[in-house]
């Protein structure tokens, strides 16, 4: 059996506390775990951040220190369980979120699917609630060593879309840890951040469509 692992970035995750805290520090916010409280429907979450990181800044998240060591600080907070949450949007499709990370005000969510089409459906669902939703990483596991190449027609992309993809790749936008964030790439291109994410989303949709079409022809 083969499967896919995707990491999706939500550049504008609304009132996500994890993303809000990450916007106030240079270090990623990760090791996120959460649970729901039945009595009032509140969601209790914890996250980790480098021990020497400062999280003071312009965010309204009420944080409670839980644990600390020489490498990491753990904080806990509560949020309204009825608020739109990107993790909940994904998990309502029946797909567990395996990793949550906040970085530079964006939210990065990883999950696994059996079919490539499921990833496209999840991305579409997220875009109904949030702006700036992009596929950050997409990998596939294979049962054997046989290659499974897909030919993607570069002509399907506009010149501007190719330029944006190439610039983002060269600047390390798709790397982990990131060599550049959306604002950095937008500045390099001389466009607004929203314009960059819009063009990148359109390019990724075209590439995803090409992969899905090729996958469908093989079945």
TrEMBL record:
Keywords: Transcription, Transcription regulation. It holds the Pfam family DmsR_N. The keyword Transmembrane does not apply. The keyword ATP-binding does not apply. Residues 157-209 form the HTH bat-type domain. InterPro entries: DmsR-like_N, HTH_bacterioopsin, WH-like_DNA-bd_sf. Residues 1-141 form the DmsR-like N-terminal domain. It comes from the Archaea. This is Uncharacterized protein. It comes from Natrinema salaciae.
């Amino acid at each position: 059996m083969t499967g896919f692992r995707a990491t999706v970035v939500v550049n504008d995750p609304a009132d996500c506390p994890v993303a809000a805290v990450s916007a106030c520090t240079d270090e990623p916010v990760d090791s996120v775990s959460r649970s729901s409280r039945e009595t009032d429907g509140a969601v209790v979450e914890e996250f980790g951040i480098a021990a020497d990181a400062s999280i003071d800044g312009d965010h309204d998240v009420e944080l409670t220190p839980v644990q600390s060591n020489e490498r990491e600080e753990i904080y806990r907070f509560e949020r309204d369980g009825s608020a739109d949450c990107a993790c909940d949007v994904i998990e309502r499709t029946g797909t567990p979120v395996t990793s949550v990370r906040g970085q530079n005000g964006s939210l990065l969510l990883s999950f696994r699917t059996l079919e490539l089409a499921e990833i496209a459906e999840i991305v579409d669902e997220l875009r109904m609630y949030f702006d700036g939703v992009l596929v950050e990483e997409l990998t596939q596991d294979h049962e054997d060593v046989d290659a499974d190449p897909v030919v993607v027609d570069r002509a399907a992309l506009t010149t501007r879309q190719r330029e944006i993809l190439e610039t983002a790749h060269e600047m390390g936008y798709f790397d982990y840890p990131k060599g550049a964030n959306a604002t950095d790439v937008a500045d390099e291109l001389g466009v607004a951040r929203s314009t960059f994410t819009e063009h990148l989303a359109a390019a990724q949709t075209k590439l995803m469509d090409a992969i899905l079409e090729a996958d469908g022809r093989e079945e």
